[in-house]
Amino acid sequence: MTIYEVARRAGVSIATVSRTLRGTGPVAAKTREKVLKAVEELNFTPSRLGVSLAEGRHAANGVVFPDLAGPYYAEVLLGYEEVASELGRSVIILSTKGRTRVGDLIKDLAGRVDGMLIFGHTVPEPLVAELVRLGVRLVFVSRDPLPGADTLRSENTASARALAAHLADHGYERFAFLGAPLTSHDDVDERWRGVRSVLGGAIEAVDTGHYTVECGHEAATKLLKGRDRPRAIVCSDDEVALGALLAAEELGLDVPGDVAVTGWDDIMAARHARPALTTVRQPMRELGARAARALDELITGVRDTPSHHTLATAPVIRASCGHHPQEVRT
């Protein structure tokens, strides 16, 4: 039995059968009853392919990330895939790292999926405008709101200020911020501005090139070998911070006795590092899950207006930033 035979038995369109079975649009009570009766009489079990063809959809979502390496992207993707699977959608992933003709790849992907999740500023702005103009359903993670698309991001500024204030309460006077080039309006930029608003001229920014353990280790090694060694290193994310911890250990420096280190994200390795890493917890998996639900709402027509949401973050105080008896460590 196919969805077409159900539609014929119920005397309705295949789109109405699809909306009834998926619960994705308004269907009159009497019409719904006719459809469900036909389904029961025909012993019909809908296939994902059949429903997709009936609705003119692909039953697939596209995900465009700059890279797939590292725990941050893994957590976001896990959250996204879990919900997409529940919704009956497959996921096609495009990593732009090392690719040429990225614009053509993204346009090709847009033609093979019902909508796309895009990370930050991975896609050039002119192409974003073109995709919006063409009516592609879009959800962005980790970027400012923009017209014609949903955006989801984690809060950065308030938690960065709280983290900086906590470090200042320890009495530290010289700080460094380890992060990739601070040239765009992304999450790390906001963290830098938040920290600097509290610490002012006492903190300097150090370019790490990329957000990796290796880049954090290299930058921290140079910094800690210098004559004006910082008393505390604030890192753009936990991977960079883990590299800084390793650099301090190799140089025979005690953390936090000689230098304090903090990260951002609260990946699993942060709590198991020695000393355990003070960081800022952001809901990475929830970002992915909510992005999947948001995109499904746009695809199924539950809503046709973009929404913009910011998820809460919070400092997590552990041993790497020093002893602070008033804080509860987790």
Would you write up a description of this structure?
The longest helix is centred in the last third of the chain and has 17 residues, at 284-300. Strands 2-1-3-4-5-11 form a six-stranded parallel sheet, sandwiched between helices. It has a four-stranded parallel sheet with strand order 7-6-8-9, with helices on both faces. It has a two-stranded antiparallel ribbon with strand order 10-12. It has 13 helices and twelve strands. It is α/β, with parallel strands linked by helices and 330 residues long. The mean pLDDT is 90. It starts with a helix and ends in a 14-residue tail after the last strand. The chain has helices spanning 3-10, 14-22, 29-42, 48-55, 71-86, 102-110, 125-133, 157-169, 187-199, 213-225, 238-250, 268-272, 284-300; strands at residues 60-65, 90-95, 115-119, 137-141, 150-154, 175-179, 203-207, 232-235, 260-262, 279-281, 308-311, 314-316. Helix content is 45%, strand content 16%. Residues 1-55 form the HTH lacI-type domain. This is LacI family transcriptional regulator. It holds the Pfam family Peripla_BP_3.
